[in-house]
Amino acid sequence: MVLIVRKGCLLLILACLLSPTPKSYALSCVEAPSIAKAYKSYEGLVVGHVVNVEQTKEYNQVHIQVKRSFKGVETDTLTVEENITWGSLWGPSEKGEDYLFFLNQKEGQWENPLCAPTKKIAEASGELKFLKNKEIPLISSAGKSAKPSEGTVAPASDPGMMGWGTRLLSLASSGSQGLE
Fold first, then answer.
1. pTM to 2 decimals?
2. What's the total number of domains in the chain?
3. Could you tell me the residue range of the domain that residue 78 belongs to?
4. What phi, psi does 45 have (nearest 5°)?
5. For a tag site, which of 38, 57, 81, 97 has the least CB within 10 Å?
6. In the chain, what's the furthest Cα-to-Cα distance?
7. Would you say 113 and 88 are in contact if contact means Cβ atoms under 8 Å apart?
8. pLDDT tens figures, 120-134
């Protein structure tokens, strides 16, 4: 009887060792979603330069200079929270690097979620191709549009934002003598 139990246990162990098991990962999000799916899933998509990363006990505060926005973000600067160890799917953000960030809002604060497909801009050519016609204008920290929309005329008080035609008309009407 003991011999039968031993053989049964041995067969059970062999069956467990030889049977195929599904792959398991530490994170269920190990594979990034398609850009179309990610665009729908995330509240904010921006290309940004990491100006600084501050570490707290719970998370990193990533300070970003936004270069381009494709969804949800209209300001040219952001502070984003991210996991202190993992960052997003590809790891925590590094100071001085440019990224395509996929962001969500949590309690009024932008976050770079743990499973976000955020990646360095050098590795995001396919995603940028998809986003090409989805760019939205940014508002600069100073309150002016960082990238004026086509067809808008900058106020005469801001000569740096005027087109040459408007600048010439302004100079002619004020009697100024030269062009800067």
1. 0.63
2. 1
3. 35-134
4. -130, 120
5. 57
6. 113
7. yes
8. 999 999 999 999 999
